[in-house]
Write a structure and sequence with these properties.
- The protein is α+β, with helices and mostly antiparallel strands.
- The protein has three helices and six strands, in the order ααββαββββ.
- It has helices at about 5-25, 25-30, 50-60, and strands at about 35-40, 45, 65-80, 80-95, 100-115, 120-135.
Length: about 150
Amino acid sequence: MPIDHDDRTAISDVLTRYSTAIDLRDWTLYRTCFTDDVTADFPTGTWTNREDLASFMAEWHADLGLTVHHVDNVVVTVDGDTATARSYGNAVLQADRAHPEKFLELHGTYDDTLVRTPDGWRISHRTAKVVSAVTQESTEPALVSAP
């Protein structure tokens, strides 16, 4: 059965909004990606509600410099008011705002279950896996302006 284009677009938008919210450090926007009772399994821990997850992410990113998150290769399956999505994630993080030449690059996957809510699609369960993590120090001049 073909997927409804509007649902696929809306679900992809949630995944993109997740990345954008982190990079902007917009934790209000970040919360709009998840249900209140989200279960999130990350390499750094497991959370069972949106507020605790958002608080952790805000704290974890507080000392980082600029970050650039990407989500692509999104595959979506919709069954009524529930959906699954698999996507690849890539993040480049300035590991220390005082030393922008030092950075961490992460590559991995997100496996999500989403539900349709009155406010649109929201992630109700996320499993994030890191496939590779590389730390580097750039020999080139560092980017120091916000995107």
